[in-house]
């Protein structure tokens, strides 16, 4: 699902290029909210397809932008299935305005579609489908070492709960080689900024008045972050925030434990690409430490073979053990009664342990991961090649090479500190960021 409407109904979904029978399904983005479908249909009934088509033909600049929208749509479909890239553009059309529903859905998906943008503005002005409920829309972006993630919410002043409108994650590996060079690689920066641009377009199409990005380990460690900072300011309209390890940990704790029904104190462990945060607390953090171990950092330092050799695994385990010894000196980890594991390593390990046919956040959130299952999945992942891991139905593209390193951290934590299980949480620093933004609406 790409986004929800203000009522909580799926607004736009993303389809595979072929259906269950293998027949072409050219509409990659599909508008599903009944009220929104009706509102767009009213525009079509008023003759706007023909009028917009005529406007495209009459305006050379608009014609070029519209042609690019079709080309980019087709190219995106081709990334899911190579031959699907030749099946036409938005809604399966090679040119022209075919279906306003398809153009609008593509805009909600983050596409550069001038017709879809027109539909979005028209709906906001005359048929405020997304805006019929009170509240303001905010977008938080978490820029990590391995992934960039988006959360768009609707919040009302004075209310504790928010409505999630969109959540997404793309692995761009911004921290590629940062541990070795101390610099952001040009290609990694290009990949990340491209996704950031798409996130900003999606956020604004959903009515977000603010888009705020917070960066973590890789950006903290990089000496050449000026180009990234410039891109963030240009695309979001706000300065890039670089979180310290402690700030990262506190926001993660807030997002991971809100509404958690489990014995406290909690130990929240956030296994990232460049660092891992350890946060102890009950109603709030009482101890925080950010350790310089993460799935990307460990993989780049120690792994040279595929699958990793016994010696490479042992070297990662020693590095993790050394870091955990330092954590023990700074955080009273043995006081914790509940281990809460957040981020992609923990959720993916749990998805494999549960043998899910596909990644399912609702099944994973607040589920219990026994230590025995974590150890079993760790051994399985360590024995598989990168290609074999990539083929797992729950594996996010870009995580397959680093997950043995991340699982090393997770299993080491459970074994060293005697946790028989971990609560796996889909909410984390991203939710903490959004919560802080909502608090700023109330002046909290």
List keywords for this structure.
globular; 444 residues; Nucleotidyltransferase, domain 5; six-stranded mixed beta sheet; alpha/beta
How would you portray this structure in words?
The chain is of the alpha/beta class and 444 residues long. It has three domains: 3-126, no CATH class; 136-245, Nucleotidyltransferase, domain 5 (2-Layer Sandwich); 261-426, Nucleotidyltransferase, domain 5. It is built from 18 helices and 14 strands. The strands form three sheets. It has a six-stranded mixed beta sheet, with helices on both faces. The chain has a five-stranded mixed beta sheet with strand order 6-5-4-7-8, with helices on both faces. The longest helix has 21 residues, at 60-80. The protein is globular and about 70 Å long. The protein starts with a strand and ends with a helix. The model has no long low-confidence stretch (mean pLDDT 91).
């Amino acid at each position: 699902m790409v986004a929800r409407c203000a009522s909580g109904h799926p607004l736009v979904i993303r389809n595979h290029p072929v259906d269950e029978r293998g027949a072409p399904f050219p509409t990659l983005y599909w508008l599903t909210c009944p009220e929104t479908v009706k509102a767009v249909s009213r525009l079509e009934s008023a003759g706007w397809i023909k009028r917009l088509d005529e406007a495209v033909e009459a305006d050379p600049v608009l014609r070029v932008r519209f042609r690019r929208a079709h080309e980019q749509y087709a190219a995106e479909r081709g990334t899911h299935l190579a031959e699907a890239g030749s099946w036409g553009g938005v809604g399966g059309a090679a040119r022209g305005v075919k279906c306003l529903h398809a153009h609008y859905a593509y805009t909600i998906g983050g596409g550069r579609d001038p017709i879809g943008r027109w539909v979005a503005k028209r709906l906001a002005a005359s048929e405020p489908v997304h805006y019929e409920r009170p509240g303001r829309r905010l977008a938080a972006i978490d820029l990590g070492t391995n992934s960039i993630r988006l959360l768009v919410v609707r919040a009302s002043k004075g209310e504790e709960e928010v409505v999630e409108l969109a959540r997404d994650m793309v692995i761009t590996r911004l921290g590629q080689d940062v541990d070795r060079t101390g610099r952001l690689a040009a290609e990694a920066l290009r990949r990340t900024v491209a996704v950031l641009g798409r996130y900003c377009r999606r956020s604004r199409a959903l009515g977000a008045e603010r888009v705020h990005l917070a960066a973590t380990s890789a950006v903290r460690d990089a000496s050449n972050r000026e180009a990234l900072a410039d891109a963030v300011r240009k695309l979001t309209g706000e300065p890039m925030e670089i979180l310290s390890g402690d700030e990262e940990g506190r926001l993660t704790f807030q997002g991971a434990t809100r509404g958690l029904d489990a014995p406290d104190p909690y130990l929240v462990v956030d296994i990232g690409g460049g660092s891992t945060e350890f946060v102890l607390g009950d109603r709030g953090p009482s101890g925080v430490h950010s350790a310089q171990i993460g799935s990307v950092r460990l993989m780049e330092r120690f792994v040279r073979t595929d699958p990793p050799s016994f010696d490479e695994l042992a070297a990662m385990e020693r590095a993790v053990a050394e870091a955990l010894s330092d954590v023990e000196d700074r955080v009273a980890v043995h006081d914790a009664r509940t281990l809460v594991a957040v981020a992609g390593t923990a959720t993916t390990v749990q998805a494999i342990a549960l043998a899910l046919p596909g990644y399912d956040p609702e099944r994973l959130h607040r589920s219990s991961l026994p230590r025995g299952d974590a150890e079993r999945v760790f051994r399985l992942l360590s024995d598989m090649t990168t290609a074999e891991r990539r083929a797992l139905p729950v594996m996010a593209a870009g995580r397959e090479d680093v997950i043995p390193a991340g699982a090393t951290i997770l299993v080491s934590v459970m074994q060293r500190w005697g946790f028989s299980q971990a609560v796996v949480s889909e909410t984390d620093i991203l939710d903490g960021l959004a919560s802080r933004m909502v608090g700023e609406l109330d002046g909290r």
